[in-house]
Amino acid sequence: MDIRTGFFYLFSAVLLFAAFRVITARNPVYAALYLVLAFFQAAAVWILLKAEFLAISLVLVYVGAVMVLFLFVVMMLDINVDSLRAGFWKHFPVAATVGSLIALEMAAVLMGGFRLGEEPRVVPMPAPGAIPISNTKELGKLLYSQYLYPLEIAAVILLVAIIAAIALTLRQRKDSKHTDPSQQVRVKAADRLQIIKLPPTIAEPEPQPVAAVETKA
Fold this sequence. Notes:
This protein has helices spanning 3-24, 28-48, 52-77, 81-85, 88-111, 135-146, 148-169, 181-186, 189-192. The chain is mostly helical. Among the domains are: 1-80, Up-down Bundle (Four Helix Bundle (Hemerythrin (Met), subunit A)), CATH 1.20.120.1200; 134-168. Helix 1 runs antiparallel to helix 2 and helix 2 (28-48) packs antiparallel against helix 3 (52-77). 4% of the residues are buried.
């Protein structure tokens, strides 16, 4: 076993352990951290398969944006874990059925690629002195040439989803303080500052001494 195979088994073992801890961790913050670890191990496996673009995309998109946002939301909401565990066994049969179905489908798909009796396909290595081929460059050529229209359709769908998410979360609250940019543009200096003439300050009159009143015994 060479060093590349050893790293593959190491990353795969850590990936399986982190994925198992994601669904078994009692604290949601720990589960999110284990999911970040699983993403890093999956990116390492992609690098071993010489898919550097996919590995970097996985780290930047999922670890750098999605998981960090999810982690901050979980930490700020202070979710009551006891209320979430209350209905665990109630929904366990449905979850176990769906999980088993997904596992069978994945096994059926993956086992089709490991048929016995077929000779392994040999990937031709580039000749010495040849120009190295970048998989990121080749992926970009495919995306912007052969798959240009599907890429544009996906971009439009994502844009519509972003606008819909903003429209759904935009609410007019009475207690929120906001400014109108159109009023800020039309404002004038005279509207911001108003000079008022006040009379000069008058000194307070001195108190008069009170005359003593003599009392006869």
